[in-house]
């Protein structure tokens, strides 16, 4: 990797380097300013949950970190390396996986073909080897024996778990493809409380197992998901990070935005959009 003047390691040799850093990131859609000079650091091993009212730009942040959406202003550093443009323009120094709100599976492919998709497309691994890797990932998400089924034959929670298995898939011959951070966009949206608990437990399990991924950023609206999966919570509103704290601090903070959000009240500083 070429070291340039944009390289964070070169400019801040003594500071602990975050895995992901947004510095002064802004994003507008037309005249609609969504993010206004947002700063955010995500440390190795952190479980960060971004919360805030609908339409405040939470998914936009994930898509920019994944390199799927260009930023207007500011910089994104991935493990100290500045990303220029989109992921297709430049390889990131670490693997980043994204789990989309809708599981985004190919309906015409089996579970095995979905989970192994990138390896079938982009690796020289044998079918046997890919199948073994798929089976290992399916076991990790509690879906052993489902490889031959189609997404339409699974429940919403199971489809979500298939998308988790796909997110943690990597090519053992290319260590850089192993995800070091997973971005989860509302992983429990639309699931019943019990299916949500299964997903929340799985998110934490994957963080703790060596074969999983130690760092994640999640967007969620679900109270239980926020409380059970966050080490740190950031509250986004009006284009800015307005508050951040631990799960315990959610209930002790005086921040009126956080209080209104968690009490689900229509009275307060958050503008209610009918
Ligand atoms: N590609 C796009 N083109 C135009 N507007 C967009 C685009 N993507 C997002 N937006 C707008 O940007 C705003 C932020 O969207 P985003 O999906 O990031 O919000 P969010 O906080 O994740 O919302 P929710 O909680 O409802 O999922 C919304 O007003 C949305 O309509």
Class based on secondary structure composition and strand pairing: alpha/beta
Tally the beta strands: 10
How does the overall form come out from the CA principal axes? globular
The CATH homologous superfamily: P-loop containing nucleotide triphosphate hydrolases
If you compute it from the alpha carbons, what radius of gyration comes out, rounded to the nearest whole angstrom? 19 Å
CATH class: Alpha Beta
Describe this structure in words.
This protein is of the alpha/beta class and 274 residues long. It has a single domain, classed as P-loop containing nucleotide triphosphate hydrolases (Rossmann fold). 31% of the residues lie in helices and 23% in strands. It is built from ten helices and ten strands. It has a six-stranded mixed β-sheet, with helices on both faces. It is globular, with a radius of gyration of 19 Å.
Explain the layout of strands and helices.
Elements: H1 8-11, E1 20-29, E2 32-42, E3 47-51, H2 58-65, E4 73-78, E5 81-82, E6 95-99, H3 111-115, H4 117-122, H5 127-140, H6 156-167, E7 179-185, H7 193-208, E8 215-219, H8 223-229, E9 232-237, E10 240-245, H9 247-252, H10 256-263
Parallel strand pairs: 3-8, 3-9, 6-7, 7-8
Antiparallel strand pairs: 1-2, 1-4, 4-5, 9-10
Helix pairs in contact: 5-6, 7-8
Adenosine-5'-triphosphate binds near residues 52, 54 and 57.
